[in-house]
UniProtKB/TrEMBL annotation:
UniProt name for this protein: Gamma-glutamyl-gamma-aminobutyrate hydrolase family protein
Keyword Protease: no
This protein's record includes keyword Transmembrane helix: no
Species per Swiss-Prot/TrEMBL record: Luoshenia tenuis
Coiled-coil stretches noted in the UniProt entry, renumbered to this chain: none
Molecular function terms from GO: gamma-glutamyl-gamma-aminobutyrate hydrolase activity
Pfam family, any one: Peptidase_C26
C-alpha cells in the first residue's frame, strides 16, 4: 500500500474554495505516495491525522502572523490567515509527537521553524537588502546535509518566490543549505525526520524532473 502523505492547502482569494497547485499532488504521487489534501482542523483532529497519515507536507502560501514568533507586523507582511497558522502549527507538533516525517516547502519551512521556537525575517529586500522573488539562484550545503543524499554535486540551482525567510533557527533544526547571500534555503533535523526547503521543488518535482529525487527521498522516510 502506498504511504499516505497529508498536504496543507490555502484559501482561495474569494474565501469560498480551498486551493493547492496540482504539481504538489503530482510530485507526491509520482514519488510513490498517495496525497491527502488537508484544510482547517482543530488540535485534537491534528493529533488524529498524525496517527493515520505517514507524513506531512506543509505547502507554500501567504505569510505567518509575526505575533506567532514574537515580532510586530512589518508593512510588507501580507496574506496572513490565523486559521491556517493554527492548523499548521497543530499539525506540525502532532506529527513531531507521533514521530512522523515533515517536509516544509517555502511558507512550510517557515512554519516548521516557528513551530520549533524560531523566528522569521519578515522582508528580505527591506531588512537584508536581498531579493529572492521571481529569480533563480544557486544554493550550496555542507557534506552532512540531507541534500547530500539526494543531489550528488554539492550545489544546485533553485527557483525562488519568497520575500520572507528563516531567521533564528528553531530548537533542533540545523541549516542544511544557504544561498550565496547567506539566506537559509534548507533546514533539517534528521533524528526527527524534519526537513524544510525555501524554494518550490513541486514546480519541478514530477517524474523525470530535477526535483523528483527530493520527493522520492521524503516518501522513503515516510515508508520507514
Amino acid at each position: 500500500m502506498r504511504p499516505l502523505i497529508g498536504i496543507t492547502t490555502s484559501d482561495s482569494d474569494s474565501g469560498t474554495h480551498i486551493q493547492l497547485r496540482m504539481d504538489y499532488h503530482q510530485s507526491v504521487e509520482d514519488a510513490g505516495a498517495q496525497p491527502v489534501l488537508l484544510w482547517r482542523c482543530g488540535e485534537a483532529a491534528a493529533e488524529g491525522l498524525a496517527q493515520r497519515l505517514d507524513g506531512l507536507i506543509l505547502a507554500g502560501g501567504g505569510d505567518m502572523d509575526p505575533a506567532r514568533y514574537g515580532q510586530t507586523r512589518h508593512e510588507k507582511t501580507e496574506l496572513v490567515s490565523s486559521g491556517r497558522d493554527d492548523t499548521e502549527l497543530w499539525l506540525t507538533r502532532a506529527f513531531l509527537e507521533a514521530g512522523k516525517p515533515v517536509l516544509g516547502i517555502c511558507r512550510g519551512i517557515q512554519t516548521l521553524n516557528v513551530a520549533l521556537g524560531g523566528d522569521l525575517i519578515q522582508d528580505l529586500p527591506q531588512m537584508r537588502g536581498v531579493k529572492h522573488a521571481n529569480v533563480r539562484h544557486e544554493i550550496t550545503w555542507p557534506e552532512e546535509s540531507f541534500l547530500s543524499a539526494i543531489f550528488p554535486y554539492g550545489k544546485i540551482e533553485v527557483n525562488s518566490f519568497h520575500h520572507q525567510a528563516v531567521g533564528r533557527l528553531g530548537v533542533g533544526l540545523q541549516c542544511a543549505a544557504c544561498a550565496a547571500d547567506g539566506t537559509i534555503e534548507a533546514v533539517s533535523d534528521g533524528r526527527r525526520n524534519l526537513y524544510g526547503v525555501q524554494w518550490h521543488p513541486e514546480k519541478e518535482g514530477g517524474a523525470g524532473q530535477p526535483m523528483a529525487p527530493l520527493f522520492r527521498y521524503f516518501v522513503a522516510q515516510c515508508i520507514r
